[in-house]
Design brief:
Pfam families: Memo
Shape: globular
Order of helices and strands: EHEHEEEEHEHHHEHEEHHHEE
Number of strands: 12
Family: Belongs to the MEMO1 family.
Low-confidence stretches: none
InterPro entries: MEMO1_fam (IPR002737)
Organism: Phaedon cochleariae (Mustard beetle)
Protein name: Protein MEMO1
Length: 295
């Protein structure tokens, strides 16, 4: 059996199961259940010291009683992909307990001819999916024997490819037993990220970053994939999970086209920055958490 190790445990987050469980409990208890039960969430994937608290606001919206399968869409940071890739592992380790890959859904997705497979090295080196596994394990701990996961590594997609994957995944999004976790940080600002957009009308640099992020968040809340693509082209905002977000927006549109009786509501619940930039030598990463409710 192929097993993916938790390579970022002990650095990006603690490798002590007891300590991790306590941290996650604390962050979940700090958050309010205000927009659930979530069919999808958007949450960050940085080290927990930076974004663990922010992520709790998204994970708090999940109803573990309902969910039986979790799709995790994370952007590829290290390998070039023009499409999406599935995990070839059967099991993902976490400091809490092991999560099992849904081989049936992997086979169904492979049959579409639109997915490739990532090798174990790529899988283990990528943090955008791994950083969600402890939260998933924590939230689902009372139902761990009934849970499977479907990790999907997302490459640099054209809007047409985002729409293609949205169509494929929309039938899974339609099932309340499925939850989609969309892995994304927001603006990466500073010379080290080669992005220094600054609109002085907002005031300080960190206020400009927040303003820019909130424009994008508003467009995502409007569930408009075309407008989101236009926003990214106009401002170049360094939202690393823009393609997973694009797939989600396309999947929602497809679902609503196929069933006009459904209502979809996506709300951002928390926004944070790793630090407040005040001069051009500073840098920061923004984090945001959101939940999608479909009824």
């Amino acid at each position: 059996m192929s097993v993916r190790r938790a390579l970022h445990a002990g650095s990006w987050y603690t490798d002590s199961g007891a300590e991790l469980s306590k941290q996650l409990d604390y962050w979940l208890n700090q958050a309010e259940l205000s927009h659930g039960p979530a069919r999808a969430i958007i949450a960050p994937h940085a080290g927990y010291q930076y974004c663990g608290a922010c992520g709790g606001h998204a994970y708090r919206q999940i109803s573990p009683i309902v969910v039986r399968r979790i799709f995790i869409l994370g952007p590829s940071h290290h390998v070039r992909l023009s499409g999406c890739a599935l995990s070839s592992a059967q099991k993902y380790k976490t400091p809490l307990y092991d999560l099992h890959i849904d081989s049936q859904v992997n086979s169904e997705l492979e049959m579409t001819g639109q997915f490739e497979w990532m090798d174990l090295d790529t899988d283990e080196n990528e943090h955008s999916i791994e950083m969600h596994l402890p939260y998933i394990a924590k939230v689902m701990e009372n139902f761990k024997n009934q849970l499977t996961i479907v990790p999907i590594l997302v490459g640099s997609l054209s809007p047409e490819r985002e729409a293609c994957y949205g169509r494929i995944l929309s039938s899974y999004l339609a099932d309340p037993k499925n939850l989609f976790v969309i892995s994304s940080d927001f603006c990466h600002w500073g010379h080290r990220f080669r992005y220094t957009y600054y609109d002085r009308s907002y005031g300080n640099i960190y206020q400009s970053i927040e303003g820019l992020d909130h424009v994008g968040m508003g467009i995502i809340e409007n569930l408009n994939p075309t407008e989101f693509t236009t926003y990214l082209k106009k401002f170049g905002n360094t939202i690393c999970g823009r393609h997973p977000i694009g797939i989600l927006l396309q999947a929602i549109q497809e679902l609503l086209r196929n069933d006009s009786s459904q209502n979809a509501s996506l709300k951002f619940l928390k926004y944070a920055q790793s630090s407040q930039c005040r001069n051009m030598n500073d840098s920061s990463v923004s984090y945001a958490s959101a939940a999608l409710v479909i009824d």
